[in-house]
Amino acid sequence: MSTQGIAKVTDFAQSFYYLACSICKRATNAYGNGDFWCNYCAKKVPALTKIKFNIQITDETGSIEAAVFSEVAAKAYSITQADAIDGKLALPVLHKLGDPRKCIMTLKVYMHNYAGRSEIKFNAHSMSAEDLPKPTNRFEELLALPPNAPNKKEQERRA
């Protein structure tokens, strides 16, 4: 799902990172930067700091929350794992996240069912600062067809 809107961080009390397995890249319950036992890999491995934060996306229809992960954060905001020292982002980085950005986003939608309740979550798959093409009202442009050739009366009138 693609949309154009204003993206910005509104909750600065949220965690901006999580720890992941260095082999399978899955989130873990590890604490600190030491080695931990990964239940998915069945190995003792070091934990990686990965960027994750929520942004609010607003357009003319309303607003939603979406999660931004390391790869998109690096491309859209120039934020890397090195910026999340001890789980905290530096003040200039936080200011950058708080500034509203008009951009085009591709969102992935995930639906989870838990205890009889359905929950929908959005993840930002890509973000760019490009503008969408202007909408057209001409049917020929919409279908990429050439315009109709003028008939004989119109040709005589133009001559």
From TrEMBL:
Replication factor A C-terminal domain residues are 14-131
InterPro entries, per database record: NA-bd_OB-fold, Rep_factor-A_C
Q: Where is this region: Disordered?
A: 139-159
Specify the protein name.
Replication factor A C-terminal domain-containing protein
Native source organism of the sequence: Rhododendron griersonianum
